[in-house]
Design goal:
Helix content is 20%, strand content 34%. By secondary structure, the protein is of the alpha+beta class. Strands 4-5-2-6-7-8 form a six-stranded mixed β-sheet, with helices on both faces. Strands 9-11-17-14-13-18 form a six-stranded antiparallel beta barrel. Helix 2 (26-32) packs parallel to helix 3. 49% of the residues are buried.
Length: 442
């Protein structure tokens, strides 16, 4: 295999899934953006890699917002400014633009993961897609975040995908948002920027965030990216990272519960085995621990050979870590995106459950009309989506947009779910509902 890292292989394979995110031109990406680079030929061997430094708390963060508002430009600018302080390591990854047919349109076909540090923290950053048709990957990405940077172009203000991303961020449990008003250099009237800020704060408040007190940083990501080291144009990035440090608390990791990780990507390393990547949702795991691979297919048992994160070996992984896990005795087709890897005996797959759901209104981007018994949308759990059939309560003929409702669901495939598992409901490229599993029925 010619690639020298797990992520580079993951990017190439994930491109087949057509997960779209805004891409800054290769010129700037090659200068500034960092990658999760885990060497394929060294997985399972600690001789070539340094150990991951846990002296600073690790916080998962990400950019969300409307397409072309500058999410990837901002990500690149953050790494560039922090690299000048020795708190990030700039690495080229031209390979991340793995789809030539998309390159001319200025988009790439994957979500980028980067790492950087401030004086207080280590950050793991995911650059989420912006296209409405690919919100399912945003759901996956947002589910990994301890906080989000909402990027809003001052030239456009709040747009449809801005609203959808904020709604989804709340539904999948993103607890804190910091706002970056981008492209402020292109707006001559400061009062217009004030109006955009008011709209953003109102949007956050309506979706259950603290819109009144949420930090809002103004600036230009592109100017910061192009600026000379130490110039005034970089100050907005410094202010943004200070806001993240101060406004997003150190996350309390769920390490007491049994280990569980949703599988985000899978690849084979010739001569070594199968690697599954994803974020540890809860618990801890170490090499030689037994695990089960649950959901979508018959449950399978394996053993963890080794663990890595950001090209560094891990003695153990814990809740919140984004890791690569080398599994013993598992073929490439025996583990897939959407399954979970868990401590044996702690979670089982189900197809039938009862849910408490909010159905979005037309104004929130949801359905324009009611639906009836037998409705078959897509249900998004962690990193998977499965078609399910909705059964309404006896006597209930229809459900209207805006309704809070309980109903039963039968999925066409069994997935690893339990009480309190959150999910989104999607239909025709739109999020139409958000819910929680309240009871298992099979």
């Amino acid at each position: 295999m010619s690639s020298d890292s797990l992520l580079e292989t993951s990017c190439l394979k994930s491109s087949l899934r057509l997960v779209v995110s805004v891409l800054l031109t290769t010129k700037y990406l090659s200068k500034s953006l960092l990658t999760v680079r885990l060497p394929l030929d060294s997985v399972g061997s600690s001789t070539m890699l340094e150990k991951f430094d846990r002296s600073k708390p690790n916080v998962n963060i990400g950019t969300i917002g409307h397409v072309d508002h500058g999410k990837t430009t901002l990500t690149a600018a953050i790494t560039k400014v922090l690299a000048e302080k020795g708190e990030a390591k700039a690495m080229a990854y031209d390979q991340i633009d793995a789809a030539p047919e998309e390159k001319a349109r200025g988009i790439t076909i994957n979500a980028a993961h980067v790492e950087y540090e401030t004086a207080k923290r280590h950050y793991t950053h995911v650059d989420c897609p912006g296209h409405a048709d690919y919100v399912k990957n945003m759901i996956t990405g947002a589910a990994q975040m301890d906080g989000a940077i909402l990027v809003v172009a001052a030239t456009d203000g709040v747009m449809p995908q801005t609203r959808e991303h904020v709604l989804l961020a709340k539904q999948v449990g993103v607890p804190y948002i910091v706002v970056f008003l981008n492209k402020c250099d292109q707006v001559d009237d400061p009062e217009l920027i004030d109006l955009v800020e008011m709209d953003v704060r109102d949007l956050l408040s309506k979706n259950g965030f603290d819109g009144e007190n949420c930090p809002v940083v103004r600036g230009s990501a592109l100017k910061a990216l192009e600026a000379a080291p130490g110039s005034a144009d970089e100050q907005c990035i410094v202010d943004l990272m200070n806001a993240c440090d101060e406004s997003i608390p150190d996350p309390v990791r769920d390490i007491e519960k049994p280990f569980l990780m949703a599988v985000e990507d899978v690849m084979t390393i010739t001569g070594r085995g199968t690697v599954a990547t994803g974020r540890v949702e809860r618990g801890e795991i170490k090499s030689n621990d037994a695990v089960e691979i649950v959901g979508l297919m018959p449950t399978r048992t394996s053993t963890v050979i080794s663990l890595e994160m950001f090209r560094k070996t891990l003695d153990y992984a814990k809740a919140g870590d984004n890791i690569g896990m080398l599994l013993r005795g598992v073929d490439r087709d025996q583990v897939v995106r959407g399954q979970v890897i868990a401590k044996p005996g702690t979670i089982v797959p189900h197809a039938k459950f009862r849910a408490q759901v909010y159905i979005l209104t037309k104004e929130e981007g949801g359905r324009h009309t009611a639906f009836a018994d037998g409705y078959r949308p897509q249900f998004y759990f962690r990193t998977t989506d499965v078609t399910g059939v909705i059964s309404l309560e006896e006597g209930s003929k229809i459900v209207m947009p805006g309704d809070h409702v309980e109903f039963n669901v039968e999925l066409i495939k069994k997935v690893a779910i339990e009480k309190n598992t959150k999910f989104a409901i999607r239909e025709g490229g739109h999020t139409v509902g958000a819910g929680t599993v309240i009871d298992i029925l099979d």
